[in-house]
Amino acid sequence: MKVYDSRLGRLGNALFRYFASTLFCIIYNAERIYEPNQSRQFFNDSMFIQWSNFVLENKIPQIIDTNWEFYGFYQHDKIFIKYKNELIKWMKDHPNDIVYTDGNDPLLNINNYNYPVQSFKIGDIINNPNKSNNNPNKSNNKIYKTVIHLRLEDFINNSAVIHPDCIVDVMSYINSDEYTIVLNKPKNDIEINYVNYLKSKFNIILQTGTILEDFHVMCQAETLVCSSSTLSWIASFLSNTVKTVYFPNKSKEPHESFNKPIENTIYYDIKLCSKEELETFFSQVNSNNLDSNNLDSNNLDSKFDIIIPLGPNDLNKIDIMFNNTKKNIIGYNKIYIITNKNNFNKLENYNDIILIDEDIFDFNIKYINSLKNNTDKNRSGWYFQQLIKLYAGFYINDLLPNYLVIDSDTNFLKPTTFFQNDLPLYNFGIENHKPYFTHIQKLHPSLYKKSNVSGICHHMMFQKNIINQLFYLIESYHNKKFYEIFLENVLNIEWAGSGASEYELYFNYIHLYHNNKFKIRELKWTNASALNNNNNYDYISCYWYL
After folding, report:
1. What is the pTM of this model?
2. Fewest C-beta atoms under 10 Å: which of 7, 356, 397, 412?
3. What's the whole-number mean pLDDT along residues 239-255?
């Protein structure tokens, strides 16, 4: 039996094809050849999928002893993961095996991306040919901790490029001091704008070497963010050092079901966009940057809106609270009150607030009442308002990325700012309610009480990008929507009391994952049954039940 690899696509495609044909060498003792035989038979993707399904069940099919040409892409990771050790051993034992790329895609040539036919020895894939034991600092033997692979060029023209904000989200989630971006050298305005957009937000090193140099930079990382690319998948698959992989959460196609190169693979959400969409996006970004240059002290990073969730118990006190908010909260943009639409007529005289119907959310009191662990329907509204605070940024279209939530029973008595040098400021409390932290750990095992003070102090600055990362962490772990996870993990025995806290969740999350992106400052405050003008306090919270 002989196997021959057709020349289709670039290096990543060629290596997947090589893996497929190598399985025939391992299992059937096939011989690799590099010239097609006229009497050959084609072993295509569909045949490979069917064959793999048998092999995954440890049922080795009988195969005709002939010349097989692998004419497909074979991008299916389960079979290769099963034979990972055998594939790596084969590559080490056969360093002179060769893979070829085609370099003949007319679409790429039309767009001025002319990739030549290339050949690569497997020994140079499995071992870094540029590595020098005598000189570990050799310029083409670079090792970086956190590496991101970007596939731009042809993907831009094919409307298959990942939106830059998706990359920003995963980079923010990783929260590294430095990132290395591996990509072909940017050649046009869109590619340059894409890279500059990321560089404006993070400390970035660009790696634009040969394909083998870039491949081994990925292989030697500790954390690798893959693009929608076969090459970065293979780099993490063959790596001895990659501990965590972030892989695009994309729909599987019949010809490509690769998405988990290593066990510790975390999926990140993506939006694919076209060349025209990118042009529009960067035009807006550049316009906003020009505007922000004229803002000076009114920097957009420190602008914020105010959210006030309003329930029935505080409706009769909102007038005083609202006036104190307008008077003493410094630097806000707009005030939104989220409440039942039946309350709108009681608030219509407030011309400088925006009323939001609480029915806009996908969850509601009726849903919360239906939960099996809900042992007290009177507490449903309390859990509901917690979720409103966390989800407001995803349902209110014009809400700024920063928004200050103030409990509707809380009155600020002194002028108070909430940003210092573009960093949000957080006050604190002294509460230490253990069920809150039991709940947090059930949401994700990496979450726990990090701070020695409490985040519960009746107001909090939320940032939408951080909430998005928090949601992603928890949703990817449970494979459910965040609000379902948040509610379902409240213990039955704690539901009627206090079984969860949105403030403690967010407060400890930023301490764990974003501890250099905020400042703690102390305000004087107290809980009281009635408002007084005590000059000792920055604010007072007036509980309706006290």
Report:
1. 0.57
2. 397
3. 82
